[in-house]
Amino acid sequence: MPRSRFLSGAITVAATSLLASACTTGPTGGPSSSGDKGRATVKVGFTSDVTSFDPAKGAGSTDYALTSLLYQPLIGQDDGGTFVAGLADTWTSTPTKTSLTLKKGLTCSDGSALTPSQVVASLKRYRAHSAGALLTFGAANTGEKTTITGDEAAGTVTITTATPWGEVLAGLSGTAAGIVCKAGLEAGAAALAQGAVEGAATGPYEMVTARRGASYELRLRKGFKAYPRFASMPAGEPADRLRVQISKNESTLANQLQTGALDLAPLTGTDATRFTGNDTFTVESAPFIRNYIAFNQRPGRPGADPKVRKAIAQAVSVKAFNNVFGGTGQPLTSYVDEKAACVSTDGSLLTRTDTAAAKQVLKGVSIKLEGSNAVAGGAGNSYVAEALRAAGAEVKLTNADNAAWATDVTANQGDWDATVFPLISGTLARGGTYFLGPEPAKGGLNYGAVKNAAYAENYAAATSTTDRNAKCAAWQKAQEALLKANDVIPLATVDVHYVARRGVAFAMPGGSLSVSTLRVTG
Amino acid sequence: MAAAPAVGTAAGTGRSARLGPWGAFLVRRLVGLTAVAVTLVAGTFLMVQLIPGDPARVVAGAEATPADVELVRHDLGLDQPLLVRFGTYTSGLLRGDMGTSFQTQEPVAEIIGGRLPFTAEIALLAVLVVLGLAVPIGLAAAARGSRRTDASFTFVTGTVGATPEYIIGTLLVLGFAVELGWFPAAGAETLVSMVLPVAALVLPATCVMARIVRSEATHVLAQDYMRTARGRRLPPLRLYARHALPNLLTATLTLGGLILAGLLGGTVVVESVFAWPGIGQRVVEALLVRDYPVIQGCVLILGLLAALLNLLVDLVLALLDPRTLAGKGGR
Amino acid sequence: MRRIRWNAPLVVSLAGLGLIVVLGIVAPFLLEEEATALSGAARAHVSAGHWLGTDVLGRDVLARTLVATRLTLEMTLAATAIAAVAGILLGTGVWVSGRRVRELGLRLIDVMISYPALILALVIATVLGTGPVASVLAIGLGGAPAFARLTANMAASVAQRDFVTQARLMGVPPYRVLVRHLLPNISGPLLVLLSVAFANVLVALSGLSFLGVGVQAPDYDWGALLNSGLQSLYTNPAEAIGPAVAITVTGVLAGFVGDGLAAALDPRGGRAKAAAVRPTAVATPSHRAPADALVTVDGLAVVLPDGTRLVDDVSFHVMPGEVVGLVGESGSGKSLTAMSVARLLPEGLSAHAAELTLDDLDLAGPEADPKRLATEIGIVFQDPSSSFNPALRMSGQLTETLRVHQGVRGADADRRAVEALEQVRITEPARVMKQYPHELSGGMRQRAMIAAALLPGPRLIVADEPTTALDVTVQAEVLDVLKDINHRRGTSVLLISHDIGVVGTVCHRAVVMYAGRVVEELSAADLRAGRARHPYTRALLAASPRLRDSGSGERAPLATIPGRPPAPAGRPRGCGFTDRCPVAIDVVCATERPRLIDDVACHAVRQEVQAG
């Protein structure tokens, strides 16, 4: 029978091709060589898809990773807050004037030269479109009060602010301030957000293929030399190709690492422990989320009473909180972690755990605790709720999803008394904007209606100077004021553990992964 | 369980006389489809508006000032009254424009176009495998129902059928990907990537389906026409394949269509386990960030697909069993 | 609702579920403290203190799993109830409302059911905000369409029955039709559906939790526990085991309750009881039949697996070219006897005989040549509307035996089928060949059935009540066709009928059966002339209008036979007809079995003969 022969033939072909592909996708280790000598593809996994490819609009770790590869900032920020060269080689900065000299021979990914005027255009767009720009140029320097100019001949870009402001360099080193070439600026915001605009890249990589929600493939730009010069830059060559893969589930990422489908992935949960003590992998940890308790201090709320805030601080144990996330996080001594510049590490400023004392105040106090379930399903919130309950408070815990939590708490549209705030930003200036200024209803960020004059005064002092010592002295006073008043109760970080296959190395300047430092060493 | 089409009665014999049975059938179904589409458009739009949580705030980001949020709200058109937005939405739909994602700025049609094939791929494959396995298994169980095979059939199908897909999926990953390394643990890179997700969908569904087929087959095998066929002393294969199967298919396909439709959305759990970039995962993402256009678009398309599949199944049934066309019902 | 037949799976699974319910009630009282106490040892592995380890907050997983039973069961029950109430109202509602509403409602259910329930549930859960109430509503409403569809299907079968139609015509309001007529009649299957739905809801609820939109802390159900456990599956698998097992076991038990209920309510439930078949004593051959008989039945017994004899010691024969009628009330065993001859007994029944042959073909042996069976015996079944396969065209069904067993090729077979259809006086046979059974009238179908039986050229036609399901006018035509075939082809016919009149007109000879035994054998001429001897045969004749009318011309009132025949298991030791017999002799008839002597089995007749 010819028909059945054909069928069986087709089945055999299908079966063998399946088997063949099964064999090729076996757990082979290491960055895979593809033909040419030394050309390697490194496969990096992330748990969330890119939400925007526009550096000014990036909102998640995958956004930051990809945009930092495509759009290089002028400078980088290394450990301890020192700045290192990026697209700019040298710079000078005073509270009113910052001037940067670009490296020679910079190009865009379409081959055209990257000129100072293009950098100016890109920075102006950043100022207009990025939410973070407010902190870069200062709230008092909006609009025309900041001028950005370029000098083609000298190859410099100069930023002047009307009011003294000391955070310009820090702001320019952020991923959001990555420089976009002319092609990108002309393509418009929608195109920039949706995908990599061809010819717009200033960073080390350009996009080859993008499959939304699944994977992105990037190619190293030939002749790119403007890598930020971090102190801990690993040896080796940048990978010729980077493949970014999305797997929503951390266990899946871990499985893919284990089976050789990935070379590098960030893990925040317990799956990271599968790779400790394993010769094939290296694990580097960095703070991912800084957790602290904050209060709704409006009149009538329990948090308005300093005694209650203190008692709540006494009721919780940082160590126990940390254990919820596997004990791998770092206890916080402020609202940011110890890697941040000018952070207070003075443990004596913190309220000590004292359950007995807490019970005397909290007994019968009704507290509505609302937290986001985005991190470990809200396990940290559960701990705080249980600890307060153990101290006699009547706790109503709401574990909302991130969107509902943000609306309820940070926009203050919900009924809440206290929250476990998951701070992503690692700098004092950015994280500290939540404790001063007007309330959300009046156009500010002060969601808890914190009134701490000493803090606000020192915040202003710290952010308007460029002198390191003066800055840190002011920051110390600001943090002291906040901690003494128990406006913030630092808990612990949830760390991200970057698990890398041997042969792949990277730097974590300032405590966070910089994908552009990824090097193939083996 | 009676086959579904038996319930559709011929609406207006006069009309069917003019159009012929197929014409009347199609007219009836197209009118129904339009009504369903209109309901879905309005329903999804309204339902999405009910979701608590402010999309503008999510899009603007946690560190945005209220002014930024208002700016975003304006950009997204969320400051318009509900009716105006509904008007914009429907007029866009008529032009084939489903809007753009709040979150990623992609056109929703593109998102669906990129995601749906992945889901359809494994859902379709799963349904084919389910039907291919469940029908023979169920038929065999009904035909040779000795007490012992009956008990083990019931036990195995009952147990596997009641196990959630994500547990089965997780176990499959543990065994075949992590321990044995036979298949990729996740992703949609190669053909073999499909094996485990499809297996996770197929195992419980096959068990459920096999039970349905068995009970249907028991019913069919007890029919008089099966005794007539046995009276012709046919070889077993011919007896079951030619005489029992077509009658079994009516019920089986009805349910198979339902399973396929269910899988289109039901793969969401399996997609999550295997990092499969399907539409189910995208809906969950969109729900979490209140990405109205994406939720609306996906829910609408899935609904329309369901309605279309329904029609398709009925068309196939009408071809298979001419009694269903007239809607008179054979029973 | 039908009476429930308890079976082992049902009892065991109900007991298991009961245990879980008790656990759900008791556990929160006993273990609440342990389940919420923070031990300080987060994600501890299995130990003597924590049999399933601890969770992220160091709480005992076993205690939490047990305590979560209550919330899980409550949520599952509530969601099942929502799905059931909404679904049943919708599904039965369409059947008690007007036609247009019904059309629309059924269409709507069709579309709703094919909508991905989990996606719908996800949206609903997000709209309502995560938590137990939202989950319950989401899954309940998401499951309602499926419930509605299945209920609608069940209701359909009931709603089209006469009593419901009648109630509606009499203007009984819809809700009363629903409550009084529809619901009680589908309560059995509904119960099965409910237990299956319970299992599905359980899995669906845990699925919501798996996706992170289910129950949120501080509440916890099995799904939430499992979700948290799965996050550490690769580092501390014990945490996931408790809730995973709980969900699966409860789901399986609920499913088995469904199975058990289905079996318990199944009218055909006896099937599974395949107890050891008791050896049946085979009668010694009597060799009464002539040697040249075509069909010889000698000492035939048709036996249930438990040994009950439905047909007991039946003997008769059919000569070549002879039409023999098997007559008796329903339950007399005549059809089983005929099916034994056709070797088509239903599953579970077995035929034993000293001799059961068609010429040299042994019909009682363990193996019989299928080709000879198919071609030498033609069978005409009782109900032509159900005996043709509705999914196949007539041509295929008519020619199947020819093609399968006689190797006749397509066109040739079709030609012969058309000839056969002409022979049974079907007009436009070529068109009929292309039609489906439902497109033919009842009389046409039965004639086509006879044609199909004729086609392979059988030596015997077994016709099992061939006219019972037909109109009176059509009955005569069909019988004529049978007679005609017998005349022209000389094919023997074994005609089974409860109508002694039919047997009298069509057959050469009649065999009268009562309660599984032959009571009398007589020629058709004797039958027509009323020369029956057995009191049962006489009673049958008295109850048959046609023969008496044609016989004497005067219209006597129809006699009925009082009482009912005995059940096969309760057949008396003596004559089965004793209780209803007008001439029963006290001692003998009830205790001593009359033997068939001189073609009649009756003590009274024997006494008369001996006396006379």
UniProtKB/TrEMBL annotation, chain A:
The molecule here is called ABC transporter substrate-binding protein
- Taxonomically, the superkingdom here is Bacteria
For this protein, the record's InterPro entries field holds: Peptide/Ni-bd, SBP_5, SBP_5_dom
Q: Which UniProt keywords apply?
A: Signal, Transport
Q: Where does the chain cross the membrane?
A: none
Q: Which Pfam families does the annotation name?
A: SBP_bac_5
Q: Does the keyword Transport apply?
A: yes
Which classification does the entry list for the species? Answer: Bacteria, Bacillati, Actinomycetota, Actinomycetes, Kitasatosporales
Automatic annotation (TrEMBL), chain B:
Q: What is this protein called?
A: ABC transporter permease
- Give the UniProt subcellular location, in the record's own words: Cell membrane
Which family is this sequence assigned to?
Belongs to the binding-protein-dependent transport system permease family.
Record flagged with keyword Lipoprotein: no
Pfam name, any one:
BPD_transp_1
Q: Which InterPro entries match?
A: BPD_transp_1_N (IPR045621), MetI-like (IPR000515), MetI-like_sf (IPR035906)
Query: Which residue range or ranges hold the ABC transmembrane type-1 domain?
Result: 116-317
| Organism superkingdom | Bacteria
Q: What are the entry keywords?
A: Cell membrane, Membrane, Transmembrane, Transmembrane helix, Transport
What CDD domains does this protein's entry cite?
TM_PBP2
Q: Does the keyword Mitochondrion apply?
A: no
Query: What is the membrane topology listed in the Swiss-Prot or TrEMBL record?
Result: Multi-pass membrane protein
| Organism of this sequence | Streptomyces atroolivaceus
Membrane-crossing residue ranges in chain numbering: 30-51, 122-143, 155-178, 190-213, 248-274, 294-320
Automatic annotation (TrEMBL), chain C:
Per the record, the domain of life is Bacteria
Task: Please name the Gene3D superfamilies in this protein's record.
Answer: MetI-like, P-loop containing nucleotide triphosphate hydrolases
Q: Where is the signal peptide?
A: none
Q: Which family does it belong to?
A: Belongs to the binding-protein-dependent transport system permease family.
Q: Which InterPro entries match?
A: AAA+_ATPase (IPR003593), ABC_Ni/Peptide_Import (IPR050388), ABC_transporter-like_ATP-bd (IPR003439), ABC_transporter-like_CS (IPR017871), MetI-like (IPR000515), MetI-like_sf (IPR035906), Oligopep_ABC_C (IPR013563), P-loop_NTPase (IPR027417)
What positions does the domain ABC transmembrane type-1 occupy? 69-258
Key word Methyltransferase present: no
Taxonomic source organism:
Streptomyces atroolivaceus
Q: Which UniProt keywords apply?
A: ATP-binding, Cell membrane, Membrane, Nucleotide-binding, Transmembrane, Transmembrane helix, Transport
Its main localization is: membrane
The name of this protein is: Dipeptide/oligopeptide/nickel ABC transporter permease/ATP-binding protein
Residue segments, region Disordered: 547-573
Localization per record = Cell membrane; Membrane
* UniProt keyword annotation of Transport present: yes
Q: Which CDD domains match?
A: ABC_NikE_OppD_transporters, TM_PBP2
Every copy of the ABC transporter domain together lies at: 295-540
Q: How does it sit in the membrane?
A: Multi-pass membrane protein; Peripheral membrane protein
